Amino acid sequence: MIICCGEALIDFVPSPDGLSYRPCPGGSILNIAVGLGKMEVPVGFFCQLSTDFFGDLLVQTLLDSGVDISLCPRKDGQTTLAFVSLPKPGEEEPQFAFYSNGAVDRSMKVENLPEKLDDKVKALHFGSISLLLEPGATALEHLMKRESRQRMLSLDPNVRPAVIPDKEIFKKRFENWLNYVDILRLSHADLSFIYPNDKIDELVPKWFEKGLSLIILTQGEEGAIGFGYHGIRTSVPAQRVIVKDTVGAGDSFFSAILTYLHDHQLLYSRQALRDIQTDELTDCLLFASKAAAINCTREGANPPFRYEMG
After folding, report:
1. Element (H, E) at 278
2. In sequence order, what are the residues at sequence separation of 6 or more whose Cβ sits closer than 8 angstroms to the Cβ of residue 218?
3. In this predicted structure, what is the pLDDT of residue 249?
4. What are residue 96's phi and psi, to 5 degrees?
5. Is 282 within 8 Å of 260 (Cβ atoms)?
6. C-alpha to C-alpha distance for 187 and 292, rounded to whole angstroms
7. What angle do CA 87, 92, 93 make, to 5 degrees?
8. Could you report how far apart the first and last alpha carbons of the chain are, in Å?
9. pLDDT tens readout for residues 155-214
10. Which terminus of the chain is more solvent-facing, meaning fewer CB atoms within 10 Å of its CB: N or C?
11. What is the DSSP letter of 90?
């Protein structure tokens, strides 16, 4: 089982005319859990959820997608809200405005962590704003350190500049996380924010030295690149579809990456992951590219079900 650790929130997505907003369950970590559940991969979610009606919506969304919520205590308080501005010409990704002061999903503390995870939990996923907003960020970072090299860990920073007041401090934290995780996915926008003057090919060898086993860079309409531990490098184009919006596309992509690795017995063994072959990594990226393309044909974050993947 994979446990996705982090935020669950409500995205307010604008209508095509920009005159109204529709509330949609969201948050990168929730989206990836939902994507895995829809792909019929054993998955759980770890996050405090509000007892408000938005919390009810989040719970129902997880359950409808087949996600285990036994690690999701309900707490009195508000749910984090995010208002989405779809990309304007020249922008790579949607912009977000977060309203999370006092929200229960960010208020978890170290003492709220489970003392021990069930033996069936073989992998943990981390990322996004849940690793930035305190006190929850410190708690999840503690969990990451505790479980590192005990289980397989994945990270998607999913950078949101609106909640990063100091880029240099964030860069140091990001590089520290790389000491603990096995799989890294980041977007071209993430890379440009963290390393505006560096190329991915220059960074990859340093990251592998930290202990990573697989690195994936997504580039929107330019496709994706995968880097294997033994010097493998492969790329795939983005699939061409009529795009409604790109909200959640990266999350759908990465949930499909984890699905492929799960299906092919590559996710739960560090050695197996490091020994991935070029054709396997290419097929993995193609599978994920298809999932992201399907997500882009509908509004909001809406990962595909397995049957939609053909």
Report:
1. helix 278-296
2. 185, 186, 187, 188, 224, 250, 253, 292
3. 92
4. -130, 145
5. no
6. 13
7. 55
8. 24
9. 999 998 888 999 999 999 999 999 999 999 999 999 999 999 999 999 999 999 999 999
10. C
11. T
CA 80 vs. chain centroid, Å, equals 17
Residue 104 to residue 222: CA distance in whole angstroms: 37
Residue 269 in 3-state DSSP? coil
Distance CA 176, CA 298 (A): 36
Q: How far is CA 175 from the centre of its chain?
A: 17
Chain position carrying tokens 């690690």? 71
Strands 21-26, 224-228: pairing is: unpaired
Count the Cβ atoms, other than its own, within 10 Å of residue 71.
18
CATH class of 2-305: alpha beta
Q: Residue ranges per domain, the chain?
A: 2-305
Strands lying side by side in the sheet with 81-85: 21-26, 9-14, 81-85, 95-99
Confidence at residue 20, expressed as pLDDT on a 0 to 100 scale? 85
CA angle 133–15–12, rounded 5-degree value: 20
Tell me, yes or no, if the pTM score tops 0.85: yes
Ranges of residues in the chain whose predicted pLDDT is under 70: 86-94
Angle at the Cα of 180 from the Cα atoms of 144 and 124, rounded to 5 degrees: 45
- Residue 204: partners with Cβ closer than 8 Å, 6 or more residues away: 215, 227
Q: Is 184 helix (H, G, I), strand (E, B) or coil?
A: strand
Q: Which helix (H) or strand (E) holds 127?
A: strand 123-127
